[in-house]
Design a protein that fits this description.
GO terms for molecular function: calcium ion binding; calcium-dependent phospholipase A2 activity; calcium-dependent phospholipid binding. The chain is α+β, with helices and mostly antiparallel strands and 118 residues long. 26% of the residues lie in helices and 25% in strands.
């Protein structure tokens, strides 16, 4: 369930803040087109407004990849495996978990060649 997280800060001195606490709201429980007042020790108020969104979100609300990114990585693994097989002159195809999805740099090629040729 997507959550909206806020870190509450308390002003201690000039330009110095201390963490006061964390608020979390399940996004699907927020009422549409209404203001929500959140008070803590009568020292501040937080107002939120949520609006119904008909399209896909442009913001990632978690650490998981979207479907399009997962599809891209699956396709890329096949291309990477084929390229590694060709570059390293391997006799057998690489298994899916052996195909790297890292971006190679100058140190990558000798290391991967040593790994697969031994």
């Amino acid at each position: 369930m997507p959550l909206l997280l806020f870190t509450l800060l308390q002003l201690a001195d000039k330009n110095v803040t201390q963490e006061y606490g964390v608020l979390s709201f399940p996004l699907n429980s927020l009422p549409l087109q209404k203001e929500i007042a959140v008070e803590e020790d009568q020292s501040f108020e937080l107002y939120l407004t949520s609006r119904k969104c008909s399209g896909d979100l442009d913001v990632r609300l978690g650490y998981s990849l979207c479907r399009e990114e997962q599809d891209f990585l699956q396709k890329r693994k096949k291309h990477v495996a084929a390229a590694l097989k060709k570059i390293l002159n391997l006799e057998e195809d690489l298994k899916e978990h052996e195909a790297s999805h890292m971006v190679p740099n100058d140190n990558f090629s000798p290391a991967i060649k040593a790994w697969f040729t031994h």
